[in-house]
Design a protein that fits this description.
Blueprint: H1 2-14, E1 23-27, H2 35-47, E2 52-55, H3 60-63, H4 73-84, E3 88-92, H5 100-105, H6 132-149, E4 155-159, H7 174-188, H8 191-198, H9 222-250, E5 255-257, E6 259-260, H10 271-277, E7 282-283, H11 306-317, E8 324-329, H12 346-356, E9 359-364, H13 390-409, E10 412-414, E11 418-421, H14 424-431, H15 442-454, E12 460-463, E13 474-477, H16 485-497, E14 500-504, H17 523-529, E15 531-538, E16 545-549, E17 552-565, E18 569-574, E19 583-590, E20 593-598, E21 600-602, H18 604-617, E22 624-625, E23 631-638, E24 643-649, E25 655-659, E26 663-665, E27 671-672, E28 675-678, E29 682-688
Parallel strand pairs: 1-2, 1-9, 2-3, 3-4, 4-5, 6-7, 8-9, 11-12, 11-13, 13-14, 14-20
Antiparallel strand pairs: 10-23, 15-17, 16-17, 16-18, 17-21, 18-19, 19-20, 22-25, 23-24, 24-29, 25-28, 26-27, 26-29
Helix pairs in contact: 1-13, 2-4, 6-9, 12-13, 15-18
């Protein structure tokens, strides 16, 4: 009966769908199966209501078994067979895993580690992105694929490479050193300017010419290592652009994307700039096994938190009014350390969460479980015996629901009037290990403020310090170590217009070269906050202080500013072993707005309380709210300007959501004006009347 309902539902809604605007499917590997199996798989995908398959990401040898000899008939057959079953194709350039013949002919393609050892063959992402021979091979295979499929209406786009910037992206080969020298010469022009920027007088590291430049390692001078990180980001973007341009030269209308690994939490590339280089930016969503904590070596696992996934999606979007894609989505066990078991129903709900953040392509990874290889533990939509089990039916239901939602609403994009500033320059500055406090992890602490906003129903963009701030009524600036004069000026303008600004310690302590500013914190931010920072102290993570804020006492760690208040008033004071009685949180009226300053790194309960006060002081009023942290609520608009509330209940109990505007359930057409109830492990979409 359930299967009949889904089939009937899809039939009724397909006529309403706009073809090609919402895709749901699976990552598929036809090179690993016989031709007859491709036909069987296409029928299974059709039965699952899939309409897209991603292919080719690790198929270089199958595409080019010998240098210059291309065998793409198997891919032609797969594209054609899938198309006959209503399934379009997203093709990938296979450049993340090189064939053995390439390594044997050009062993210097392989990356060199910081210890000088060249990486051996046998994994992926182990070729140097700066190696010119490797680049030529990559451009050739990208161009070959584009020429073959440029006029094929079943191919919706190309994914360039696979999860660039993940694993160990830093290379120390001679080619990287040569390009680093050229990059520095272009940036600084003179060796004197380089020495000044790098502060080489310290430890007698002054250079006489650019030929003396070396490739810095983590824990080398932070000024020097920061430039190396910038260089690596630029080279990765250049590598992707080379393939993009090769495709666009042949097929200018082909949609280009690349997929960000690490569930979107990749810090080695500037994703804001990468987004500008792609028609649509994508990320791979493994919300149970890969979180931002993976950046910091956490192997214990964390309970699923929907705010963590929405944080990733907002990072990938970067505040832009455009859709995103998910070319890989977790459906079960993974090839990594299995931190948590994916419970039934969660893949369905985080597929809805993806749609609720403007994701218009969702691809489960993989369609068929791998019989061998590095990822043989990955759960598939189906196992190797073709049997349809629980996962298949859950994803069949999911595909039908996603297409139904799109048919009713059209293209949806999230809307936000709050923003958190997150810069990759600051990411890199923290990564070096001892630039500030080694235990203060930048992205983790940024997330604590994002989590506080989202669990209070406030839609929040994650943007760079270069972004337009004029549309935001609340701007949170956590630990932005490098704050340019231009950013400080625009923050002042925002507060003058009436925005609420929440600043934290560490913000504005260094300039673009990681030199100390004109004061412990740049004077512009101190003036904005109505404070003067007189002393700064750092403390390793096993020690903690405390602060008291309106009757609530909580721990604080890592960093402590001692303040003298000029025009600000105190809201909280240190109350433990350190700096007792000194202001820990302050508030300053500035123009028509208000500026909060947090002089330390407080625990979540303090951040939550401060965030509530900041929201109340702003002009932001969420359309809907729920007190349960496992309920994700998004505010969206479609292309016609209609407003929607997308509520997803990840808990095992029904939850009540308060609504602050009259709404209509898009499925039942029932109207609500005060509250709605969302069933356990279910979703509801409401149009705002």
């Amino acid at each position: 009966m359930k299967k009949l309902f889904i089939t009937t539902l899809l039939f009724l809604t397909c006529s309403l769908s706009l073809c090609g605007q919402v895709y749901i499917g699976a990552a598929y590997y036809p090179e690993q199966v016989e031709i007859e199996q491709v036909k069987k798989d296409a029928r299974l995908m059709q039965e699952a209501h899939f309409n897209v398959a991603r292919m080719g990401d690790f198929a270089w040898h199958s595409m080019e078994p010998k240098d210059g000899t291309f065998t793409l008939e198997w891919l032609d057959h797969a594209v054609r067979t899938l198309s006959q079953h209503g399934i379009q194709s997203l093709l990938c350039t296979p450049t993340a895993a090189i064939p053995k013949w390439m390594h044997d002919a050009h062993p210097d393609i392989m990356m060199v580690e910081a210890n000088g050892m060249r990486k051996p063959y046998g994994r992926r992402r182990h070729a140097c992105l700066n190696n010119e021979i490797y680049r030529q091979y990559c451009v050739r295979i990208a161009r070959t694929l584009a020429e073959r499929y440029k006029d094929n209406p079943s191919v919706i786009g190309f994914q360039i490479d696979n999860e660039p910037g993940t694993e160990d992206p830093y290379c120390y080969c001679h080619e990287c050193l040569k390009k680093f020298k050229l990059w520095l010469q272009k940036k600084y022009q003179t060796i004197k300017a380089l020495n000044q920027a790098w502060g080489t007088v310290f430890w007698s590291e002054t250079l006489d010419d650019f030929e003396q430049v070396w490739l810095p390692r983590r824990m080398d001078s932070p000024c020097i290592y920061l430039d190396y990180q910038r260089f690596n980001s630029d080279m990765a973007l250049e590598f992707i652009a080379l393939q993009r341009d090769a495709v666009k030269a042949v097929a200018p209308n082909m949609t280009i994307t690349t997929n960000i690994g690490g569930s979107g939490f990749v810090t080695t590339m500037d994703l804001y700039r990468l987004s500008d280089a792609c028609d649509v930016l994508s990320f791979d969503n493994y919300p149970v096994n890969v979180t931002l904590e993976s950046l910091y070596g956490n192997e214990q696992g964390l309970p699923f938190d929907p705010a963590m996934t929405s944080f990733a999606m907002q990072i990938v979007r970067g505040g832009k009014a455009r859709s995103i894609w998910v070319p890989e989505a977790q459906i079960g066990r993974t090839a990594l350390t299995q931190k948590e078991i994916v419970k039934p129903g969660f893949p369905r709900l985080w597929s809805h969460q993806q749609l609720a953040y403007g994701c218009h392509l969702s691809v489960f990874f993989p369609f068929r479980a791998f019989p061998s290889g590095h990822e043989q533990l990955m759960a598939g939509v189906v196992e190797s015996d073709n049997a349809k089990r629980t996962k298949f039916y859950e994803l069949q239901q999911t595909a039908a629901e996603i297409q139904e939602v799109y048919a009713r609403t059209g293209e949806l994009l999230p809307t936000a009037r709050a923003a958190i500033i997150r810069d990759f320059q600051t990411d890199w500055a923290f990564e070096n290990g001892y630039t500030f406090c080694p235990d203060l992890k930048y992205l983790r602490e940024v997330y604590h403020y994002y989590h506080a906003l989202r669990t209070r129903g406030v839609m929040t963009d994650v943007v760079s310090s270069q972004s337009d701030l004029t549309r935001y009524g609340l701007i949170v600036v956590p630990y932005l170590a490098i704050a340019s004069p231009n950013f400080c000026r625009r923050l002042e303008e925002a507060a003058s217009r009436g925005a609420v600004v929440l600043l934290t310690c560490v913000s504005g302590v260094r300039d673009i070269h990681l030199h100390k500013e004109d004061a412990p914190v740049t004077t512009a931010l101190q003036r904005l906050a109505g404070i003067e920072v007189e002393e700064q102290e750092a403390l390793f993570g096993r020690k903690a202080g405390s602060l008291t804020y309106d009757g609530l006492t909580g721990e604080c760690r890592f960093w402590f500013d001692q303040l003298r208040l000029t025009t600000a008033r105190p809201l909280a004071s240190f109350s433990g072993n350190y700096f007792a009685g000194s202001a820990a949180i302050t508030c300053n009226n500035y123009g028509k707005g208000r500026v909060y300053y947090v002089a330390t790194v407080p625990e979540q309960s303090i951040i939550d309380k401060l965030t509530e006060e900041a929201i109340a002081a702003s002009s932001i009023r969420p359309l809907a709210q729920c007190s349960h942290p496992q309920v994700e609520i998004s505010e969206l608009k479609n292309t016609s300007g209609r407003q929607y509330i997308y509520a997803i209940n990840f808990s095992y109990e029904e939850q009540t959501i308060s609504v602050n505007a009259p709404v209509t359930d898009i499925k039942t057409r029932e109207k609500y004006s005060a509250s709605v109830t969302v069933k356990a492990m279910d979703y509801m979409i409401m149009q705002v009347r």
